[in-house]
Amino acid sequence: MYVIVSLDVKFKTNLEKIERIIEYYGLRKIQNTLYVGELDNNERNSLKESIDNVIKEYDSVLILPVCQNCYLKKESCGREIKFDNELFRVY
Questions:
Q1: Mutual orientation of helices 41-52 and 12-24 as an angle, nearest 10°?
Q2: Which of the chain's termini has less CB crowding within 10 Å, N or C?
Q3: Measuring CA to CA, how many Å separate 19 from each of 14, 25, 62, 90?
Q4: What is the DSSP secondary-structure string of 3-46?
Q5: Cβ atoms within 10 A of the Cβ of 29, count?
């Protein structure tokens, strides 16, 4: 299942921690604080737990699951988003 993750984090140091966690799970940045990728339910739950361990009370992270059919219907305006390099998880 595809996942869209949106961030609203107050301090840069905590933003960097959360972004490293998100990128560890193979999600790709598509806008300043918006990520997209494919995760199964266990990975999504693990991502949430990892973020819960570092998030501060004034921060907000939205993890939105999207089915493949809906994701494939996406449309964009303006600049095309291309992923030049594949991002791989490091275990």
A1: 160
A2: C
A3: 9, 10, 13, 15
A4: EEEEEE-SSHHHHHHHHHHHHHTT-EEEETTEEEEE--HHHHHH
A5: 18
Query: Which sign, positive or negative, has the C-alpha torsion 68, 73, 74, 80?
Result: positive
- DSSP, collapsed to helix, strand or coil, labels residue 61 as strand
Structural element, H or E, at residue 1:
none
Contact 26, 88 (CB under 8 A): yes
29 contacts 35 by C-beta, under 8 angstroms: yes
Q: Give tens-digit pLDDT for 41-64.
A: 999 999 999 999 999 888 999 999
Query: Rounded to whole angstroms, how far apart are CA atoms 62 and 42?
Result: 17
**Token pair 């991002």 is at which residue?**
87
